[in-house]
Write a structure and sequence with these properties.
The protein is built from 18 helices and twelve strands. The protein has helices at about 5-30, 40-45, 75-85, 100-105, 120-125, 170-175, 190-195, 205-215, 245-260, 260-275, 280-315, 320-335, 340-350, 360-385, 390-395, 400-430, 445-455, 460-490; strands spanning about 50-55, 60-65, 70-75, 90-95, 110-115, 125-130, 140-145, 160-165, 180-185, 200-205, 220, 235-240. Strand 8, helix 6 (about 170-175) and strand 9 form a beta-alpha-beta unit. Helix 11 (about 280-315) packs across helix 14 (about 360-385), helix 11 packs antiparallel against helix 17 and helix 14 crosses helix 16. The structure holds arginine (ARG). Arginine binds next to loops. This is Transporter substrate-binding domain-containing protein.
Length: about 500
């Protein structure tokens, strides 16, 4: 290596190090902003209170369909609407899985949790709880035909007990039925489904929610068992150190209790849960909207992913070591980590690190685009590499510049390798996009889960989702076959 090149390389390295430091320095202050202001004031400035919940928990919170329009309903919804009204604040509901709620509040995605949450000493270390607004009991659900089999908790030795992840029920099961094997699932309908399908012998659930499931599933029953301290409370959680917000919430709760509103909320919720209509007339629109969102987010993933992929493919093919290295790191990182992790990184990272308040859909789309970008980069690179070396040499010897040869000779041939693989990528993305349901993007999978919760039927919505995914990918792969055949004719 000549001295000049060595110097240039060192300068380049220094430059990239400098850029990294600059990047980090811009990020640190953003991450470090500590909100001294009481959240009540912050929300008032914003005009909006962001409330996190997991709408899989009727009658506390669930989704329902009114004249084709999606709506949140339940005791918690009525209560937070009152809190909003009492304080002149609009309510924005952020629906996500129960086990993501505390993290979302910690990273500032939401201002408050109203999700049938039970105050526990563990949780009280992380958040402040409002006053209690609803007592609940703990119940064990089993198949009706097994009801007589379970007379004590010891009878569950080596049996499977299903609970919702990171709930008080999970704690209770660990403590009271330690000999059972525990299955923790993300959503309440899945917990009930586990018992229905025999994957689990029992599940533990808050009584108010269990009552709703039992009324809709005649094959299920409560086991004749009682926990030692089964009486629990329900409260709203907010980040620590916001006395004004806490006082405002407690004021609304007290007012609701004084006026007997909580019982009214509960009565209304019970009515809302069981409005009549056929399965499709009640829930069809969820699937339709889900399909729309799945197609949209997949197209975004593939189109912008192709743009990214193109750029990174050329970076990786370039002779510039730095560009090559960046592309290499990006592609290897994305291909070496699960999409699920990437989705959460984008979702929490955009707020915690970058200080941006992006919608779940935006975060899901960004994660899919970044993910697709890496795979498509490799597709494009392989497509270009697969064109015979002689083609470039021949083009150059005919007097074409490198760029001209690329444009006129190499790329047209490379496209034929790339297009079919891109089609496969599209099919993959349609299926993989179901993962963004974890952060609350209401695509097909998410909406199927909503219907599970709303209909208390854990199975049918999944079958419908599976059929829809299959039809989408099957049609797409037929179309791709056709295109491929056309292209091979033109050879
Ligand atoms: N009460 C239980 C707890 O605090 C379960 C709450 C589950 N809530 C829900 N929306 N899925 O852990």
């Amino acid at each position: 290596m000549t001295k000049g090149r060595g110097n240039r390389l060192r300068r380049k390295k220094l430059f990239s190090l400098f850029m990294l430091v600059v990047l980090l320095m811009t990020l640190i202050p953003v991450a470090g902003v500590s909100a001294k202001e009481d959240l009540l004031d912050t929300a008032k400035k914003r005009g909006e209170l962001r409330v996190g919940l997991s709408a899989d928990f009727a009658p506390f919170e669930f989704e329902r369909n009114i004249d084709g329009k999606n709506e949140y309903a339940g005791i918690d919804i009525a209560l937070i609407n009152k809190i909003g009204k009492d304080n002149g604040l609009k309510i924005r509901i952020v629906n996500m899985s129960f086990d993501s709620l505390l993290g979302a509040m910690k990273t500032g995605k939401i201002d408050m949790i109203a999700s049938g949450m039970t105050p526990t000493p563990e949780r009280e270390k992380q958040v402040d709880f409002s006053d209690n607004y609803m007592d609940v009991d703990q119940k064990v659900i089993v198949k009706k035909k097994d009801q007589a089999k379970y007379k004590s908790f010891a009878d569950f030795k080596d049996k499977t007990v299903a609970v919702q992840k990171q709930t008080t029920q999970e704690e209770l099961a660990k403590k009271e039925i330690p000999d059972a094997s525990l299955t923790s699932l993300t959503r309440t309908p899945d917990v009930v489904m586990a018992v229905k399908t025999g994957k689990a012998e029992a599940s533990i659930i808050d009584s108010i929610v269990g009552d709703a499931y039992l009324s809709q599933n005649k094959d299920l029953a409560y086991a004749d068992l009682e926990f030692g301290d089964s009486k629990k409370e329900t409260a709203v959680a907010i980040p620590k150190g916001n006395p004004k917000l806490l006082a405002a919430i407690n004021q609304s709760i007290k007012d609701a209790q004084d006026k007997g509103l909580i019982e009214e909320y509960q009565k209304q919720a019970n009515e809302d849960m069981f409005n009549d209509g056929t399965f499709l007339s009640k829930y069809g629109s969820y699937f339709l909207r889900g399909i729309g969102a799945t197609i949209l987010i997949s197209i975004l993933g593939v189109v912008f992913g192709s743009l990214f992929g193109g750029i990174f493919a050329f970076m990786k093919l370039s002779t510039n070591k730095l560009l090559k290295a960046i592309a290499w790191v990006y592609i290897e990182f994305i291909r070496g980590t699960p999409l699920l992790v990437q989705v959460f990184l984008v979702y929490f990272g955009t707020t915690a690190v970058l200080g941006l308040d992006l919608s779940a859909f935006m975060c899901g789309a960004i994660a899919l685009i970044l993910n697709c970008g890496a795979y498509i980069a490799e597709i494009i690179r392989a497509g270009i590499k697969a064109v015979d070396k002689g083609q470039m040499e021949a083009a150059r010897s005919l007097g074409l510049s490198h760029a001209q040869a690329m444009n006129k000779v190499i790329m047209p041939q490379a496209i034929k390798n790339i297009l079919p693989a891109l089609g496969n990528e599209f099919i993959t993305v349609i299926k993989e996009s179901s993962i963004v349901s974890v952060i609350g993007v209401s695509e097909l999978m998410f909406n199927a889960q909503v219907v599970q919760g709303a209909s208390f039927d854990p199975f049918t919505p999944l079958v419908i989702a599976a059929i829809v995914y299959f039809v989408l990918t099957f049609v797409l792969s037929r179309v791709m076959n056709l295109v491929e055949r056309r292209m091979s004719v033109s050879d």
